[in-house]
């Protein structure tokens, strides 16, 4: 009996060994194995090579379309495999997957709510998916590419994009989606391509106007209202098949002053005051639409002036007109002294109040033809200062968007010529007095640091918001005229990317030029690597790769999205800011004209010797986008080794980081010895080798041999 029992135990043990063999012998993470088993079952057991419904080793046995890094599944690529069934809810259990491409199959059902939060490229296009887009999409904050086009999805687009700052391509075309674009769409700061064609989407396109789109397709929808002016400048904008209200778009180019356009007489003549209504009842229907109260008064005054001229001598007529113009101007501004002198608003009561600057330029005066008679009735702004001045040819809402001090000339340029470089309406104009108040008179306690262009000070607004004020040195300021500085501020104001410090405003007073930025972070990468030993020890390998990726994305935006491409010119670890979550914000973007406006030899020593991050071609006076690629390679070397780009305290052969490191990048043993000791070996050898390879390509001596930024970004993405 004992032998029988023993035999049964041995038999059961052998059976269990056979059943559990796929798990014991495999190298794949068991959670990934179970997730792929479930996916295989939900897809109705398709004929995929080596796939199993139970157990197996996807990484070790190289399952068809499955790609791994060590024991983790990082990519599923099964496009055009004639797959059916539905998607399993366990898809979200894949904790390391980066790319999922199941496009051009026959997969039905709805999109599961449990999706992998690590996915960056997700394509389900060309299937038979139904239902709505799940709200849980909001958790996929690392997405770069999302394609759900050519399905049967319905319902609205969820308001789930509040943290989607990295999404580049978004395709929802050829579905049955309805409703308006969600408000969080405006947060897609990195979005380049958006395809929404062939749906039933409605509403306006206002949430898209501040995005940096290159490709926008909204054809065959139900969008209405005016098309935002900024969208018309998108290189590839397709909009046919929508009931847009083109009459609204046609209003700005007309000769009607902006404050008259929304007047009640334009939309409901019967609701006007008694006097204009009585006048309009004697005219035709067309005249009712044209003759507003303001126009009638203007014409009446002109006719009175003509009658006066006919009844008086030329001398008396000129005398009367001079008195009339002087009286009106003095009543409104206190400075308009005669018909031959333009109003000087700099000395008017408006200037100290900080509302409008330099309004005395030609377009402002010319728009009123020298008449200030109707200005009090034409102005609709509640501000008393505006009510005393002739209204410039500028739509009032644009002025009100500026939070601190509207810049009238910039806004006039923006309206009159959309192609010119107008400063963004969200950028504020500060006074020296206000910045002194916010920085405690630029005290040492608010001093952040000194750069090649000047000092940086921390500023705190009354509400508690922190800003960083870059006070350009006198030498730098003297190289630029005020017009050149405003053009520079205009360029910087249009840079909008999650990894670039945003320009909040500027100051141009008393010959001083200051740029006011969002407070990008608590420390710089240079400080974290070379000054803060405690934080340096916690700076893990994965975090370093993410920092390199954030910096690379910023340069990719400047070089491949901005048109024309923008050279940074001073890319180094001290210009890479890190917030409390160690998210990268690159500073000094767009300031290259200031760096190169003086003598190149004067700055070359600062860039090459003091910092060691400048490309070798800088010595010959040339600098390009590829030079920034070289500087990125130097920053990555800092992340790899923990060393400074140029360190005089080290032996002579090790002072220049690049020259010391290049011979060691492809020697496995030497590479391991040059890694930052604070990492204490907590990294994968394969990851280290890939990182070194990217660095080696970036620091090539010849600029033409260095890779494009998009290639570097993709290589770094594959390492995460």
Automatic annotation (TrEMBL):
Domain Protein kinase: 442-717
Keywords, ordered alphabetically: Leucine-rich repeat, Membrane, Receptor, Repeat, Signal, Transmembrane, Transmembrane helix
Any one GO CC term of the record: membrane
Pfam families given in the database record: LRR_1, LRRNT_2, PK_Tyr_Ser-Thr
Major site of localization recorded for this protein: membrane
Regions of compositional bias (Basic and acidic residues) in chain numbering: 368-377
Stretches with biased composition (Polar residues): 345-354
InterPro entries (alphabetical): Kinase-like_dom_sf, Leu-rich_rpt, LRR_dom_sf, LRR_N_plant-typ, PRK1-6/SRF4-like, Prot_kinase_dom, Ser-Thr/Tyr_kinase_cat_dom
Transmembrane segments: 6-28, 296-317
GO molecular-function term, one example from the UniProt record: protein kinase activity
Protein localization: Membrane
Region (Disordered): 328-392
PANTHER family: LEUCINE-RICH REPEAT RECEPTOR-LIKE PROTEIN KINASE PXC1 (PTHR48007), PROTEIN STRUBBELIG-RECEPTOR FAMILY 3-LIKE ISOFORM X1 (PTHR48007:SF22)
UniProt protein name: Protein kinase domain-containing protein
Organism of this sequence: Citrus clementina
């Amino acid at each position: 009996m004992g032998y029988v029992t023993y035999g049964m135990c041995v038999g059961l043990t052998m059976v269990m060994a056979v059943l559990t063999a796929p798990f014991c012998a495999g190298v794949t993470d068991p959670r990934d194995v179970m997730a792929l088993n479930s996916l295989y079952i939900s897809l109705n057991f398709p004929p995929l090579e080596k796939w199993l419904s139970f157990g197996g080793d996807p990484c070790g046995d190289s399952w068809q379309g499955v790609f791994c890094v060590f024991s983790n599944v990082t990519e599923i690529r099964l496009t055009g495999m004639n797959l059916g069934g539905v998607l399993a809810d366990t898809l979200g259990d894949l904790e390391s997957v980066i790319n999922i491409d199941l496009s051009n199959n026959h997969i039905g059902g709805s999109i599961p709510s449990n999706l992998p939060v690590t996915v960056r490229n997700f394509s389900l296009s060309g299937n038979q998916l139904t239902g709505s887009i799940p709200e849980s999409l909001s958790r996929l904050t690392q997405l770069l590419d999302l394609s759900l086009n050519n399905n049967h999805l319905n319902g609205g687009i969820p308001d789930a994009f509040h943290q989607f700052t990295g999404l580049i391509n978004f395709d929802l075309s050829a579905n049955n989606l309805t409703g308006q674009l969600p408000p969080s769409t405006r947060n897609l700061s990195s979005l380049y391509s958006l395809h929404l064609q062939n749906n039933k989407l409605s509403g306006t396109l206002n949430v898209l106007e501040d995005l940096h789109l290159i490709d926008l397709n909204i054809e065959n929808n139900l969008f209405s209202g005016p098309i935002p002016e900024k969208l018309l400048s998108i290189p590839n904008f397709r909009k046919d098949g929508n009931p847009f209200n083109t009459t609204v778009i046609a209003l700005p180019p007309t000769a009607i002053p902006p404050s008259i356009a929304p007047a009640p007489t334009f939309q409901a003549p019967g609701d006007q005051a008694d006097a204009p209504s009585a006048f309009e009842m004697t005219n035709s229907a067309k005249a009712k639409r044209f003759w507003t109260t303001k126009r009638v008064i203007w014409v009446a005054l002109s006719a009175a002036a003509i009658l006066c001229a006919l009844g008086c001598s030329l001398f008396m007529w000129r005398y009367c007109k001079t008195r009339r113009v002087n009286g009106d101007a003095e009543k409104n501004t206190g400075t308009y002294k005669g018909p031959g002198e333009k109003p000087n608003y700099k000395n008017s009561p408006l200037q100290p109040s900080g509302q409008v600057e330099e309004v005395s330029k030609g377009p402002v005066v010319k728009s009123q033809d020298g008449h200030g008679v109707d200005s009090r009735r034409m102005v609709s702004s509640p501000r008393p200062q505006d009510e005393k001045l002739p209204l410039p040819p500028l739509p009032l809402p644009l002025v009100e968007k500026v939070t601190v001090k509207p810049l009238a000339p910039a806004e006039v340029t923006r309206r009159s010529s959309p192609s010119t470089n107008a400063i963004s309406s969200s950028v504020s104009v500060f006074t020296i007095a206000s910045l002194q108040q916010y920085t405690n008179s630029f005290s040492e306690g608010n001093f952040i640091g000194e750069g090649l262009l000047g000092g940086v000070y921390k500023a705190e607004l009354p509400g508690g918001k922190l800003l960083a004020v870059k006070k350009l040195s006198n030498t730098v300021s003297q190289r630029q005229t005020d017009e050149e500085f405003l053009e520079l501020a205009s360029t910087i104001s249009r840079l909008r990317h999650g990894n670039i410090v945003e320009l909040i405003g500027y100051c141009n007073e008393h010959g001083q030029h200051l740029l006011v930025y969002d407070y990008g972070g608590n420390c710089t990468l240079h400080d974290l690597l070379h000054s803060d030993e405690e934080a340096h020890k916690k700076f893990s390998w994965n975090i370093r790769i993410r920092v390199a990726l954030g910096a690379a994305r910023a340069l990719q935006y400047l070089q491949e999205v901005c048109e024309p491409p923008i050279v940074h010119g001073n890319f180094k670890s001290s210009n890479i800011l890190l917030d409390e979550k160690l998210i990268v914000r690159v500073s000094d973007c767009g300031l290259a004209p200031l760096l190169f406006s003086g003598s190149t030899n004067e700055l070359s020593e600062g860039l090459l010797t003091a910092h060691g991050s400048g490309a070798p071609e800088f010595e010959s006076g040339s600098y390009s986008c590829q030079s920034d690629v070289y500087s990125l390679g130097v920053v990555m070397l800092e992340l790899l080794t923990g060393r400074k780009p140029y360190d005089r305290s080290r032996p002579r052969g090790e002072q220049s980081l690049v020259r010391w490191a290049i011979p060691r990048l492809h020697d496995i043993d030497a590479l391991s010895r040059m890694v930052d000791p604070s990492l204490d070996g907590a990294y994968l050898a394969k990851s280290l080798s890939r990182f070194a390879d990217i660095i080696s390509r970036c620091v090539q001596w010849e600029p033409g041999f260095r890779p494009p930024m998009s290639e570097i970004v993709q290589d770094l993405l594959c390492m995460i």
